[in-house]
Amino acid sequence: MNALTGHRAATADLRARYARLPEGHGVRLGKPTSNLFRFRSDGDRVSRLDVGALDKVLEVDPAARTATVQGMTTFEHLVEATLAHGLMPLVVPQLKTITVGGALAGLGIESTSFRHGLAHESVLEMEVLTGDGRLITATRDNEHAELFRGLPNSYGTLGYAVSLKVELQPVTRYVALRHVPFADAASCAEAIAAISATGSHDGVEVDFLDGTVFSAGEQYLTLGRFTDELPAGSGDSPSDYTGQRIYYRSIQERREDVLTTHDYIWRWDTDWFWCSRAMGAQHPLVRRLWPSRYRRSDVFRKLVARDRRYRISERIRGRLGQPVEEPVIQDIEVPVERLAEFLAAFHADIGITPVWLCPVQLRDPAGWPLYPMEPGRLYVNVGFWSAVPLAPGQPMGTHNRRIEQLVADLDGHKSLYSNSYYTPEEFERRYNGAAYRALKKGYDPAGRLPDLYDKCVRER
């Protein structure tokens, strides 16, 4: 049985199993990994639809520069398959176990996004199991074009992408890096705008662009370019940050660096950006004893999930008389010209460091209705993932609510993979409720799949 024949059999089985689920029960996706930070347990009237077997790369077409994959294929497996042909997806989200379907239903971003937009913008067509049980193919210009544009940021509430065809780009052996320091956010934002407009810096082409903020007075832009040769002065081999060395610390320590393209793509996964320090994985002794195969984002997330489930950290802090902490795990986008304002307020009111910066400009001029960023406008994604103490009397959600209001004031947006505190009216305005309801009526009229607001806000 070839891959495409096997896929047709698997999707037929999936559709049949979906039809057999009890009426009156909500349906949720059953898969082995998750990169969401909305921790919850299912109710009694929720059925799980197991899609774990739909995890294969079906075809890589080097001539057309496309790959056809099943929805549960992780980017780790997709990258492995495409690098063998000297290719990679246009946008590869930072963590290995993010799935291609997950980056479509949510949002995926990385250091090529200043040039190629969000991860789902390189999807050419998608095969979708809709909420009403149909198996359809959606493209930008067929009869299901509205679903094609509406599935991003729908988080599995309209249907599940069981296969996708995505664009690829050619790669070289290495990525050469420059870490450029800035003493203030305003000059950093100006440089982001200039590099994104020209695709270069100091006369050198830029293929990758992201940034790291260590404090209000210390931020860096990391500029990457493809190369087949080790740059002069880089030694006999590229840097390796999968062992004892830690990538994000190198940003402060050196101005130039070089990694293999594979290691550059996954540079953030080994230490979950910098969040592995909360588990002790950056302590030199612990790091030597911690097997490298378990230093990866999916392992760290499982540790966090266990901690949340059993309230381990909360109980320890209580016994030590320390204040309650609120998880603040968010990615937001603000227009580049408002970045300095956002960071100034963030440093004053929230205080998490480091912070990740990732410029993004939509590639598709038509935009995406459920995440209404303005086409042609340059935004900067700001990612921060930690916990902030609550003062006496402050309710859980205080800090996240402050961020939501700040982002709204600055004409920005917030991803929905983590806790949200919007009122129904706010959510309706921010995420185009009218467009969502029309899609829900067309593709899940019986409401078998969860409602977007219920899933992303109410279920905390």
What does this molecule look like?
The chain has 460 residues and is of the alpha+beta class. Among the domains are: 3-171 and 441-458, Uridine Diphospho-n-acetylenolpyruvylglucosamine Reductase, domain 3, CATH 3.30.465.10; 174-267, no CATH class. Helices cover 32% and strands 25% of the residues. It has 16 helices and 18 strands. The strands form four sheets. The protein has an eight-stranded antiparallel β-sheet, sandwiched between helices. Strand 6 (123-130) and strand 7 form a beta hairpin. Helix 12 (339-349) packs antiparallel against helix 13. The longest helix has 18 residues, at 3-20. The chain is globular. The N and C termini lie far apart (44 Å). The model has no long low-confidence stretch (mean pLDDT 95).
